[in-house]
Write a structure and sequence with these properties.
The structure is a homodimer. By secondary structure, chain A is of the alpha/beta class. The first copy, chain A, is built from five helices and 14 strands. Chain A is elongated, with a radius of gyration of 18 Å. Chains A and B meet through helix 5 and strand 9 of A and helix 5 and strand 9 of B.
Chain lengths: ~210, ~210
């Protein structure tokens, strides 16, 4: 199957770290959430698609990019979710979300947790921030790492027990009942693994 | 009882919004987490106490503020928790935490959720960010608001049912199984309330 890798630029804080910036620069295809399209052009790259209610775009901007506007007025979902839906319709096989954190903390929390919803039908999805990468685990498995890499794990289901392997601080088949409980762990080698029977887990790997 | 209101300045992103800045300016007493003390002096205010492992402070700085250094090398808790513990020992009756969000997202998530742990023994605690205030609810009750105020509610216990009153989008005695599910609500008047039998809830009110 041909890989169709899409990058979504959300309209949170525009990244400043070189890893997400370089990803944006080299992305096959960038789908911008609304006003993020303006930031992308200021960064020096053209948006491939622009989705959202488009309220925050000027008339001139909309005219210039009329061939790539995909307006959606759905009030029930946020622009990040509209963009993911759009990528799916375009046949995306992998999605990276950038710019979804760093402003309102409630948006940040909401956007991060939505990854788990997307992952149900779209396993290959992650989110790059200025500090690291968020990934969702909905079944046991391993993730690549490097020795000393800072790792945090968050439970979306506060009663589901978790075990981890190859991390500095063991989690022995017990639930993470508060968000801080799985934070500030550290990879011991080039991969680590999560084992669980139920639950959804958000894993953050610092760069 | 005499009110002893303490403000903790954590070493995340120094605030830029006028509400937390004004709070810092007028605070009775500011407890700085480690390097945050330097930022506070740059802002033009002297720290009252400095707690943490103090590794990030220069020799000159430590000399100048030698009378208010409270070193703690405990590796089991983070500096925010050390500062809360310190405030408690000083007889604080209320605590406001500032500067605990805005950098690494895993720290942000951890710090926010720690509010619920502190609230078990310290009910009058909140966190001011550049966008709003986080408060913990461990029993049913109401919070002040204004009509149109943006409200987000996060469950720390994903299976506990919640009802809300006087918010635009009703929550009818059901769990918030994902962090996004209680976001982007709106106050209908000068207060709103949460009703529940069990669980811990983090409420965010935008300014």
């Amino acid at each position: 199957m041909v890989q169709k890798s899409f990058t979504i630029l959300a309209d949170g804080c525009f990244p400043s770290h070189e890893i997400p910036l370089s990803h944006l620069r080299n992305a096959q295809c960038v789908v911008c959430c609304d006003g993020a399209a303006v930031k992308l052009t200021e960064f020096g790259r053209e948006p491939d698609y622009i989705v959202g209610d488009l309220d925050s775009l000027s008339g001139t901007f909309k005219e210039k990019y009329a061939d790539r506007l995909y307006p959606s007025a759905d009030q029930e979902t946020n622009d990040q979710t509209k963009a993911v839906q759009f990528c799916k319709e375009q046949g995306a096989t992998a999605i990276t979300i950038i710019g979804a954190t760093g402003l309102r903390e409630d948006h940040t929390l909401g956007n991060i947790s939505l990854l788990a919803d997307y992952a149900e039908t779209f396993p290959d999805i992650d989110m790059m921030t200025d500090y690291g990468v968020f990934t969702v685990m909905t079944r046991s498995g391993s993730l690549p790492s490097y020795k000393g890499q800072q790792i945090s794990i968050f439970a979306l289901d506060s009663q589901a027990p978790l075990s981890v392997g190859n991390l500095k601080y063991p989690i022995p088949n017990k639930p993470l009942s508060s968000w801080w409980q799985g934070t500030l762990n550290e990879a011991l080698g080039d991969s680590f693994f999560l084992t669980f029977d139920e639950g959804r887990w958000i894993v953050f790997r610092c760069y």
